[in-house]
Amino acid sequence: MLLRQFTHCILRPSDLESASELTQVVGTFNPGAESFGQGVAVVARVAEEAVEKRSGRFSSPRYEGEELRVDWLDQDDCDCSDPRIYVMKTDGTVRLRFVSHLRVYFSEDGRTIDAKNPLATILPEGEYESFGIEDPRVTRIGSTYYITYVGVSPHGVCTRLMSTTDFKLFKRHGTIFCPDNKDVVLFPEKVLGEYIALHRPMPSMKFSPPQVWLARSPDLMHWGKHLRLLGGVGDGSSRDRVGGGTPPIMTDRGWLTLYHGSDKKPSQEGAGVYSAGALLLDADNPGRVIAKSLSPVMKPEAPFEKNGFVENVVFPTAMIRREGMLFVYYGAADENLAVCGFDIQDVLDACEAV
Length: 354
Ligand code: MAN
Fold this sequence. Notes:
Elements: E1 6-11, E2 23-36, E3 39-50, E4 57-64, E5 67-74, E6 78-79, E7 85-88, E8 94-96, E9 99-107, E10 120-122, E11 132-141, E12 144-153, E13 156-164, E14 171-177, E15 181-186, E16 195-201, E17 211-217, E18 224-231, E19 241-244, E20 249-251, E21 254-262, E22 274-281, E23 289-293, H1 303-306, E24 314-322, E25 325-332, E26 336-342, H2 344-350, E27 351-353
Alpha-D-mannopyranose (MAN) is lined by residues 84-85, 96, 134, 150, 152, 157, 334.
């Protein structure tokens, strides 16, 4: 684990009002963030669950058009071994305990947020987002900020794209990776004439645990030339899950990015411990891993990372240069939104040639 220069929890559920009177905020986490003017634009995921309780039923909120509705599931039909989801025993389909939307903030110092004054609230829209929108990643390409985000619906978990220039008005561009695929991060510039993305398909046939893949595109909408980049067991910290984390930044050793992994064993209940590793990719051929950290650079340490809606989760989703450091924005315990600082040299030194 690397020494953190500072750690701040900058947003907690109790700081926020819910988007609907039917729901209450249970989490604000996994934020996109990017330098904007002198400060930082932070795009937070806000998760809400139904306020009402009914005996013998579990609630699952969703959007129908702009309306929030609550479905009441038969408790006996729900497998709850993962605290985030209900798996219906009758047909194996999945429902979420909460529904997420995005809230956009401007932070002048990159370390604090005025929770009461969002720049914008982005609610789910249309049939591919009816169970919520989640886990945004922001990448500036030229003068446009592109936001990849997860759209969850009865059609599955897919990755969609929107863009903005001012963080007040957003243009949706539709689905860019079909279900089930998330943790999509865009590179901030073309490499040899092509846009680059990391993505994380989740195959239902378990030849391997999920892996991070890389794809190329001429226009950010059509993705091809897919290749497997990273995945599998390693030191065990990404045994169950692995996925892209922060949009990469260019360093003198190549593209640097943080990714997450969960160490859950197949026999274990719950979500496992989520930690973060560092990865260096070749500047001209980002499909080639040059170096990586051999053990996590970041693990749950602070109480707000260890205790929460899902215990023991650090989930980095943005990394920007600021004050001569790397500011890493991350979700903690699927409940809180935080930022910590690393010395860039420490992160580079943690990456060993592979
Ligand atoms: C996983 C978690 C949840 C998320 C669902 C749907 O269970 O990442 O936070 O809501 O997938 O994307």
